[in-house]
Structures are given as C-alpha cells and as structure tokens.
Amino acid sequence: MSPRLVPASDDPIGPGATTPITILVNGDPVDGVLGQTLAGVLLASDTLSWRTTPLSGRRRGAFCGIGVCFDCLVVVNGQRDVRACQRRARAGDVVEFHLAPAPPRSDRGE
Ligand code: FES
Asked: Quick check: is 9 in a domain?
C-alpha cells in the first residue's frame, strides 16, 4: 500500500467502511476503493504519470485534478480520452495509458 492511501481506520475524517475494488491497469490488477477516481486509484498505487505528450513525449498525470487541464487522459474500457480525475473507478474497469512513442529529437525543437 502506498503512503498516499490512508487506511480508513487512520483517516481523521472517519469515512467509515470502504468497499475494495480492483481495476486492470495495462493488464495488471490495481486495488482501490469504491468512490475513488481513476486518478486517485493510480496515484495511490504510486503511478504518477500515465500519458505522454504527442510532440515532446513528456510524461503527464494528474495536474489540476478538477477536469480542466486534460493532462490525465486514459483509455477506459476502450473509450479514449477519459479524464482520470473525473471518472470514478468501477470494479473491473480496464484502463490503458496514452503512451505515444517519443518523436525523434530533431522533431522536438530541442
Ligand atoms: S488532472 Fe486536469 S483534467 Fe484531470
């Protein structure tokens, strides 16, 4: 368990009982709790980035966390361009990352 996922018993807010769920991330099972967003499940599993930009190949994950920046896009159950910070995780969701191959250095303007 990641330090980002506070066990319910240690949470000062006292959220009560949680319902565990499991989603598949790039084919690997990842545990979360019902009510978390996909970004929350990914961050709690120590995954900090899950997309690369198409031009520079730079890694992106959750940035704003409120649905504005679109840095957190993932593929969920075959649907592209889902904002992970806005989509609640459901048991059995199949999540794939948007990882574009990095372009040659000459195309990056570096
Ligand atoms: S983190 Fe900005 S839209 Fe999801």
From this structure: no
Best probe residue, ligand 1, of 83, 87, 98 (max atoms within 8 Å of C-beta): 83
From the CA of 62, give the closest atom in ligand 1: 1
Q: Against a cut of 0.85, is the pTM above it? A: no
Q: Report yes or no: 48 and 3 within 8 Å, Cβ to Cβ.
A: no
Name the domain count of the chain: 1
List beta partners, residue 31: 22
pLDDT 10s digits, 71-81: 999 999 999 99
For a mutational test of ligand 1's pocket, the pick from 43, 82, 85, i.e. the residue with the most ligand atoms closer than 8 A to its C-beta, is: 85
Q: Residue whose CA is closest, atom 3 of ligand 1?
A: 67
Q: Is residue 7 part of a domain?
A: no
- Residue 62 resides in a domain: yes
Number of the ligand 1 atom closest to the C-alpha atom of 65? 1
* Among the listed residues 2, 8, 27, 23, the one whose alpha carbon sits nearest the alpha carbon of residue 89: 23
Q: What is the CATH number of the domain that holds 42?
A: 3.10.20.440
